Amino acid sequence: MDSTPSPSSSSPFDLVSSALGRYIPRGGAAAAAGPADVQGDHTIRRRVPDDPAAGGQERILGVVNLDRDLRITRCNLDAPVFAGLDAVAGSPFVDLLPHGDVPTVTRRLRQVLETGEAHVARIQRLQRGDGSELVVSLSILPAAAPEEGLTVSLIAMARRLHLYAAETAIGTSLDIGETAQSLAESLLAWGDVGAVDLDFAVWTGEGVTGRAQGRIRLRRAALVPDRAWPDGYVTPGDDLPSDASRLLAQAVRRDDAPQTIVIPDRKTVERVLGSPRVVRALVPGDRSVGVACIPLVLHGAPPVVLGVAEVWRRADCPFRDSELLDLQELVARTAHHVDLARQHQREHTQVLALQRRLLPRTGGDTVEVASVYQPATPDSAGVGGDWVNSFPLADGRTALVVGDVVGHGLGAAATMGQLSMEARALLSAGLAPDEVLEHLDETVTLLDDAESGLTAGYSALGSTCCIALYDPVSHHVTLSSAGHLPPVLVSPDGHASPLAVRPHPGLGTEFALREPFDVHTFEAPPGTLLALYTDGLVEDPALSIDEGIGRLAETVSTVHPWDSLQQAARRVASALAPVRQRDDVTLLLARMIGYRKGDTATWRLPARDDAPARARAQVSALLRRWRTRDETRDNVSLLISELVTNAVRFATGPVTVRLIRTGHGLLCEVGDTGNGRPRLSRGGLLDDGGRGLHIVHGLTTRWGVRWTDTGKVVWTEVAR
Fold this sequence. Notes:
Blueprint: H1 12-23, H2 28-33, E1 37-39, E2 42-44, E3 61-66, E4 72-76, H3 102-115, E5 119-127, E6 133-142, E7 150-156, H4 159-170, H5 176-187, E8 193-199, H6 200-203, E9 218-224, H7 242-252, E10 261-263, H8 266-273, H9 276-282, E11 289-298, E12 304-314, H10 321-358, E13 367-374, E14 384-392, E15 398-408, H11 409-428, H12 433-448, E16 464-471, E17 476-482, E18 488-490, E19 496-498, E20 520-523, E21 529-533, H13 545-556, H14 565-576, E22 585-592, E23 600-605, H15 611-625, H16 630-650, E24 655-661, E25 665-672, H17 692-699, E26 702-707, E27 712-719
Antiparallel strand pairs: 1-2, 3-4, 3-7, 5-6, 6-7, 8-9, 8-12, 10-11, 11-12, 13-22, 14-15, 15-16, 16-17, 17-20, 18-19, 18-21, 21-22, 23-24, 24-25, 25-27, 26-27
C-alpha cells in the first residue's frame, strides 16, 4: 500500500489521497484490524465488522489509481470498512467486482478514458476476498495527463447513506415491477440473493385491507442477481406454490402482527418449509443458506401486509441484530413506495380500460377502419387523454374523431370520456363538425371552472380535437380541427401528404383568442386512406414536428389497397413509435369505400304542388328496378310523398330527394331551404295541424334532421 503523498501533488489520486491522509490516521486499517498477514508484497486484510463504534467514527473514503489497461497502480484503502478487498498493485480493477457487473463498469471506465469526462456517484458493489460484498459510491476521474490513466474514488455506503440512497432509488418509478426490482437490488447490501414477493392483489393494482381472507396468493415481483436459476425455482412473474405462499404469509403474520423472521441455516429452512417442492421453489441453490423474511407493511389499524422481502445469505454469515434493524428500516421506509406504485397501477388499469372501451369497433358498410392505441410506459405520469372514435351516423355518413386531452391520469380520462360522448351525441344529432367543436370548446371552459367531482383541480385547457364526416354518396369529407395536428391523406394512387388545415388555438382558449372553426371539404374517392393520430406518434426529440409528420406520411403511403388495415395500422405504429414512449400513441386509419353508383339516386324538384306526385312516381320506378318488396315500395312512396309535401308547404326553393340502398335497408332523404325543425307533437299532428310526422314515425325505424349551409335534410331509415 502506497504511503500518503504530499499535498503538493496535483494528480486526482494525490489530491484525494491527501484528503484521506487528513481524515484517516496513519495505519488506520492496522489499528482497527490488528496485525496483517503479509505474503511477499501482498497485504491480506482480515474482515472487520463494519461497526462505527469500533473506530470512533465511520470512515468511508478510499481511492484507487488505474493505468490505461485498467490495472491498479496505487491505492489508499486504509479505512477499516475496506478490509478484505484484494486491491493488489498490477491486478485488474475488475477483479474487485462481482462477475455480472464487469461489462458495465468496464464500459464506464473506457468511456472516461476516451472522453476525459468524469463519471460520478455510481452505486456499485465490490467483492471482498471472503466472498462478501461492499456497497460503495464509485466515481471515475480522468488523470491530469491522459497517459496516466484513471483515478477511482470510493465512498463506502455507510448505514445511513445506504438507506438514503436505497430509498431514493426505490422512489423513482411508479411501475410496481421496477419499484420491487429497486428494493430487491438494495437488499443485496445485506446478502447474496434478494427477492420481493407481493400479494397478487397488490401486483394487479387492487387494494388489500387487513388480514387476507381465503387462499393467500403471492407472486414473485423481483429477484436479484440476474443469473441462471435451478429448475423449479420461482422467478419474477411466477406465482409461488400455494404452500409456499401460505407459509410465508403465516410466518410474517405471527400472533396476528407482521414480524420479521430469520431462519439461520438450510436444515432449519427445510424443516420449516417441509415439502421438497417448496424448498426447490424458494431456496436459491444447493449451498447452505439462511434467510431473513421482512414483511412489507402499511401501518394502520389493522396493519396491511403488501408482501414479503427476502434476503438469503450463507449460513456461515449469520444476520446480526444491527443488520436486521437496518433491513427492517429499509423495508419500512419503502413500503409506501410499493403502495404508491400499486395505486398508480390501479389507476393505469382503469384509465386503460376506458381508453380501450372508446376505441372504434367498426366503421360501417362504407368505411373500413382500424385503430391502434399504445399507452405511455407505466413509469411515466400515467395514461393520457388520447382518444379516437369512428361510428356510422343514421343518415349514412361516417364520423371519424380524434382528440388529445391535456394531462394524464383520472382527471384527463374523465374529461376524455365526457368530450368523446358529447361529440358522438352532437354528431348523431346532425350538427356539423365546426358546430360540435364550438360546443366542446364551451365544455372545456366550463370544466375548468369545476370545483368538485372527478375532474376537480384538473384543467383541460388547450386540449385538441379533429372531426371528419365522410359522405359515401358524394365521396366528400368535411373536416374541422381545434388545434390538432393535420390528418394525412393518401390518394388511391398512393400519394400521401398532410392536409393543409389552418392552425387553431385549441379548446378552451381565452375569449380574446378564440377564432371560428374552419371547415375543410375535400374529395375522397373509393380507395382513399385517411390517417388521424395524436402527437405521441410523430413527436421525436431528434426531429421537428413537421419531419415527424412527413415520416408518418411516407410510412402510410406504403399501405397497399389489399393489405389488412388492422395489420397495416400496427405496422405503422411500430415503425414510428418508440418502445418506451412518454406519451400515448393513437392512430386511426380509415379506408373509404362509399356506395356504388347504382345504389343511390338523387332528384331535384321545384317547390310546386305537383312535386309530391312526381317524387312518388320516380321513387316507385326506382324501387321496381331494385326489386324491392311491394310493401316496402308502397311505404317508401307514402313516406317520400309526406316529406316532400311538408317541404313544399313550409319551405322555399327547390326540394332534393335522395334514395340510398344500404346493406340493411333504405335511406330516404328530403332536403329543403327551411330552417324550422320538425317535431312530433303529443296530439299527433304537425304544429299547424298536419299529420305528416306521425306517418313518418310509423313507417320508419329511425328518422332525424341534419342541418346544411342552405337549409335542412330530413332523413329516414326503412327496413327492406
